[in-house]
Amino acid sequence: MSRVFARHEAKLQLIDAKGRTRTLSRRRGIDFTSNDYLGLAGSRRLETAARAALDRGVPIGAGGSRLLRGNHPEHEALEAEAAEFFRADRALYFGSGYAANVAILSTLPLRDDIVVHDSLIHASAHDGIAAGKAIAVAAPHNDVGAFDDAIRKWRLGGGRGLPWIVVESLYSMDGDRAPLRELADVADRWGGFLVIDEAHATGVYGDSGRGLAEDLHGRENIVTINTCGKALGVEGALVCANRIVLGYLLNRARPFIYSTAPSPLAAACVRAALEVLKDEPERRVMLMKQMALANRLMVGCEGFASSGSQILPLILGDDARAVRVAEQMQADGFDIRAIRPPTVPARTARLRITVTLNVDHLDITAMLERLARVVSAEKL
After folding, report:
1. 24-40+281-379 in CATH: which number?
2. Which of 193, 189, 190 is nearest to 167 (CA)?
């Protein structure tokens, strides 16, 4: 049997030799690593919503794809409410942000089109682009001129289709924002589309948590992915776009057509989470205060830098060093994880620290004081 898997074993040994073996580990200490930014995942409000949904007969499982028997009134209600909340023409609910990105980018750009994507976009976007038929070009991170130049070069070379610009509004590993308005101008200038992954902005930024792209919603050439498993505390993703675009996805996107529909119970909980965003603005106010404190304290630590957001990367460079620091912080009661290549570029292994409502000001202060000591000791 071992000979059958010899190639896989050899690849695993190579990964291990590089110090990049992934393993599963349980939660350990105070949460400084999750994406549960508003503390909704374990909230009483969503627990109550789930119980109420079960009491009114909402099933846990869908039982089939949306195009068969899996379509449920909770899915349709969520999509209608999401379209209204995000001020979009229409919304379509997917089982995950990964599935949504793969569906969009493998389906919407056609063979004669070009996809120009930021070099730091999420792996799911890369996988969607790779599964599609359009030409793909990577632009340097947040370099608006490079996006424009790539499309111009393609047009001058005879490109006749549509350009698709693909970015994250808030980058998951660096915590910095995309220049969305300028990129929208580029899309307008070339008659193209702008696809914006709002995964880490939905629920946190914009009016009532509508995201960083809120001013662009409703435009025909904008597609947004609003993830429900981060600040909204549940699971899935809402794709918001023009109804023709979403009608095309419903008819042609294989990850939507051939997947069992998301849980109707989860859809009911996402509906409740959207209500929380409207009813409890104090959650976002408190998160902003926590975020400001963490960024201010980061600037005060030697070698640390502020991102200005709830995602605080501490780039240590060396894979092994990042792992050691993370393990020491976990041992000290702070759940911080190391992020290594290929998730991030080579020689940029880091700690990805997140600020959520699962911690308070004292936790943040204690964590950063301890982190500064651990990092300093690791230099010795």
Report:
1. 3.90.1150.10
2. 193
* 5 or 117: which leads in pLDDT: 117
CATH hierarchy code of domain 58-278? 3.40.640.10
Tell me the mean pLDDT in the region 139-147.
98
What residues are labeled active site?
35, 122, 168, 172, 197, 200, 230
* Residue 380: predicted pLDDT: 53
Task: Say if residue 176 is exposed, middle or buried (CB neighbours under 10 Å; 0-12, 13-18, 19+).
Answer: middle
Task: State phi, psi for 27 to the nearest 5 degrees.
Answer: -60, 140
Q: Which residues make up the CATH 3.40.640.10 domain(s) of the chain?
A: 58-278
Residues of the chain with CATH 3.90.1150.10: 24-40+281-379
- State pTM to two decimals: 0.94
The span from the CA of 11 to the CA of 133, in Å, is: 29
Q: Which pLDDT tens digit goes with each residue over 318-335? A: 899 999 999 999 999 999
Give pLDDT tens digits for 217-235: 888 999 999 999 999 999 9
Q: Give the torsion sign (CA, 343, 262, 103, 186).
A: negative
SS (H, E, C) 288-338: HHHHHHHHHHHHCCCCCCCCCCCEEEEEEECHHHHHHHHHHHHHCCEECCE
pLDDT digits 0-9 by tens, 145-193 = 999 999 999 999 999 999 999 999 999 999 999 999 999 999 999 999 9
Q: At what angle do helices 281-299 and 361-379 cross, to 10 degrees?
A: 30
How far is CA 379 from each of CA 193, 337, 366, rounded to the nearest angstrom? Answer: 47, 19, 21
User: Which residues are 334's β-sheet partners?
Assistant: 30
Token pair for 179:
């220049």
